[in-house]
């Protein structure tokens, strides 16, 4: 269980104007400003859950993860993960957690990946039998056999990411923090990473906190989403509720020949190309079947598709609504 209660965290940073004169001046008198990274943040995450932690750049996501990992001590508030206070019981806490930072490598750059793994085995004081079993399983699931002998610096991003994800799982953590695990990956690698994360959660019951800007990650992996903005939790709910909170509009894309159909009340034009238009429809004003009939009565329809608005659009609308 992850318990995060009324956590506040500020950073104190020195203010400095540009230029040599100001650099010299700052040696003698410094001005500081305070950045409120987390403001009274509270949530609970049950064992075995996967949650998506989303918010725009600078919202406070990494700060939250760093507090949960024990890297940062908050100014106030309570955080307990499996009963331990991360920054006070660091040595025993790190055995319970694993972290993947998509933007930073945790593997030693110049040595073969297997050497990094063996170093982790020693750091976590794992017994050889357990290490071997987990290494064999991860090698099979993530197709690592050809990669283990290669130095991290010679791996492609997708190959390296598979190794980065395996590394914290060698010691079977109860909680896994994934910070943008699919950033920069191609479509096939993204799907492979998502499938693997889901499998680990289902089979090992690992609790997963996923921080991402990729809404396809959220859609594929999480039901519950926490939205943070300006250091405050703005929404905590399931993805479907968030979608309903924002809009129940339907997106209708039509391809047609003949004249451009006029829009009825409840329809808004989102995009128009030659012989194709995408309309956002408020189904409370006009039901979908009536909207299609109204369009068909004015032109020859070649193709119609009806979808809900995408998670990406939902999140963009939420950011706009909360001015974040
Ligand atoms: N070490 C630091 N020193 C000073 N300010 C910091 C530090 N780390 C973060 N901040 C500030 O705290 C706020 C929250 O930053 P944080 O890195 O937690 O955001 P984030 O949501 O993870 O952003 P991103 O999506 O860009 O990674 C930002 O205003 C950031 O500039």
UniProtKB/TrEMBL annotation:
Pfam family, one: ABC_tran
Signal sequence region: none
Gene Ontology terms for molecular function: ATP binding; ATP hydrolysis activity
SMART domains: AAA
InterPro entries reported for this sequence: AAA+_ATPase, ABC_transporter-like_ATP-bd, ABC_transporter_ATP-binding, P-loop_NTPase
Residue span, ABC transporter domain: 18-255
PROSITE patterns in alphabetical order: ABC_TRANSPORTER_2
Keywords: ATP-binding, Nucleotide-binding, Transport
Protein name (Swiss-Prot/TrEMBL): ATP-binding cassette domain-containing protein
Species in which this protein is naturally found: Parablautia intestinalis
